[in-house]
């Protein structure tokens, strides 16, 4: 039985998050109500909730989640009550040029769970059925709640065109970076270099397959890469930290005809030295953007289904870097600690069914 009201973490203004009782969302035609079992903090959530804000207020935040189907609206055929599921947070318009070619992440008029419409830091969330995907039996809810960042990482690997025999560098080993390390191995990289400023994160990168881990606080990644590759550089560089230093390092360590993918959201401008700009030009390096994750219709580009497949086989994992599990009541405190006190964390999950 679905209750009438539920707990939800609502954003009233940047920095003003309140956990309160609200009505359980009503579903209509083609919609699904999901009982949220696990919901993660995205790298984009702290700045949204604490500084830049959402599109309307109050809004229930959170867009990375997994749970069980509680109710289905009329016309829903792809899932039924009790199914274990996750959902793509981006709701495309379906009619713009990019939607018509299946490139939903580039939609001109999208809606988005947790920033434009009510999200998943709540006991229940509703969304449209087309966005809901059933989980393989072997994928637990906590892992499934990280499908979004894992799919974002896969998208960046595809944008970088990583293929068998490539060398890959992953700059930043937050959850997206740690998924990128795993995808690079699956895609056939012969050497994966991971760069971060925290030894704890680099140690996990090593466990997940990184061959060379560089703590940029102790060593200059550009010098180390130069030595290890005898000046040739790295074929495919994926920047997930979203900071000017790593964007610059990326341009300095890429090989001739190499590529640098910007995947991390940066709230700063580019800061490239004369040497870095010169290198991009002389080495004919491609600097490529990667945004969100792709496509539910085009099989080759289907980041979400591919991610669930590899999670189901146990070849893409999240548990080693899930560092926090908290009840919903702790949402305001956790955001305050991350934003104001810079607590070192991996993936932080809220477990809304836990009191
Ligand atoms: Zn996310
Ligand atoms: Zn569209």
Per-chain topology:
Blueprint: E1 5-13, E2 16-23, E3 31-40, H1 45-52, E4 59-60, E5 64-72, E6 84-87, E7 90-91, H2 97-100, E8 111-112, E9 124-128, E10 132-134, H3 141-144, H4 147-160, E11 167-171, H5 175-186, E12 191-196, H6 199-207, E13 212-215, H7 221-228, E14 234-239, H8 244-253, E15 254-262, H9 274-282, E16 286-289, H10 303-312, E17 322-326, H11 331-341, E18 347-350
The structure holds zinc ion (2 copies).
One zinc ion is lined by residues 92-93, 96, 98-99, 107-109.
What does this structure look like?
With 355 residues, this protein is an alpha/beta fold. It has eleven helices and 18 strands. Strands 3, 5, 6, 9, 10, 17 and 18 form a seven-stranded mixed sheet that branches. Strands 13-12-11-14-15-16 form a six-stranded parallel sheet, with helices on both faces. Strand 15 (254-262), helix 9 (274-282) and strand 16 (286-289) form a beta-alpha-beta unit. The chain is globular. The mean pLDDT is 95.
Keyword list:
355 residues, alpha/beta, Quinone Oxidoreductase, Chain A, domain 1, Rossmann fold, 2 domains, 7-stranded mixed sheet, 6-stranded parallel sheet, 18 strands, globular, binds zinc ion
